[in-house]
């Protein structure tokens, strides 16, 4: 049975989401340009055109402000995987969804990838930013498990499904981190993700 359609977001919800995303993009830009130590919550609020009180209504800390941007990439990847046609080989599903989610396109502008690269380059010097990044991937792994279990025809709570989600999530994280450390164009992230998934082909596609 098809899942019921979700109700369309209200105007207030859309405005809140737009404000949150604007703050996240502004925080990412400032962190990439100045580093986390050189950026305050006040700086982010001012550049985003909101009050400091509004900033703290959405985020606990300045580092938390980039979470929506980082989570958006994982969300798009998981949505693309979930939309995979039944019967698609698992490796093909992983490769196609990873390349689509890491390639600039409408809704996935190259600018967002550039800010993500700047954030990842700033993370070694900022434990709070690293915490946000790893929290995003912890949540992504949990969201991946039922999607990949369906594609691989595995019980969602099985050890194999858990390992599959962990391996796939880690492959994407390592690929994006490796891309951020290099001086390649935006398509380099997709190329590295493909390499990572191909190297994990055996464990990913043959849990037995």
Automatic annotation (TrEMBL):
It comes from the Bacteria. Keywords: DNA-binding, Transcription, Transcription regulation. Residues 17-77 form the HTH tetR-type domain. InterPro entries: Homeodomain-like_sf, HTH-type_TetR-like_transc_reg, HTH_TetR. Residues 40-59 bind DNA. SUPFAM superfamilies: Homeodomain-like (SSF46689). The keyword Transcription regulation applies. Pfam families: TetR_N (PF00440). GO terms for molecular function: DNA-binding transcription factor activity; transcription cis-regulatory region binding. Signal peptide: none annotated. This is TetR family transcriptional regulator.
């Amino acid at each position: 049975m098809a899942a019921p359609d979700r109700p369309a977001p209200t105007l207030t919800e859309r405005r809140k989401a737009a404000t949150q995303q604007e703050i996240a993009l502004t925080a990412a830009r400032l962190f990439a340009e100045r580093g986390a130590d050189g950026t305050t919550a006040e700086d982010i609020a001012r550049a985003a055109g909101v009050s400091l009180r509004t900033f703290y209504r959405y985020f606990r800390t300045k580092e938390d402000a980039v979470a929506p941007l980082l989570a958006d990439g994982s969300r798009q990847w998981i949505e693309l995987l979930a939309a995979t046609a039944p019967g698609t080989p698992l490796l093909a599903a992983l490769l196609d969804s990873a390349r689509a989610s890491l390639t600039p396109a409408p809704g996935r502008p190259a600018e967002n990838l550039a800010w993500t690269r700047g954030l990842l380059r700033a993370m070694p010097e900022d434990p709070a930013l690293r915490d946000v990044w790893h929290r995003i991937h912890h949540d992504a792994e949990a969201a991946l498990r039922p999607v990949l279990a369906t594609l691989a025809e595995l019980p969602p709570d099985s050890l194999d499904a858990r390992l599959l989600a962990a391996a796939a999530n880690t492959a994407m994280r390592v690929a994006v981190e490796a891309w951020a450390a290099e001086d390649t164009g935006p398509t380099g992230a997709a190329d590295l993700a493909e390499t990572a998934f191909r190297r994990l082909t055996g464990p990913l596609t043959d849990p037995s």
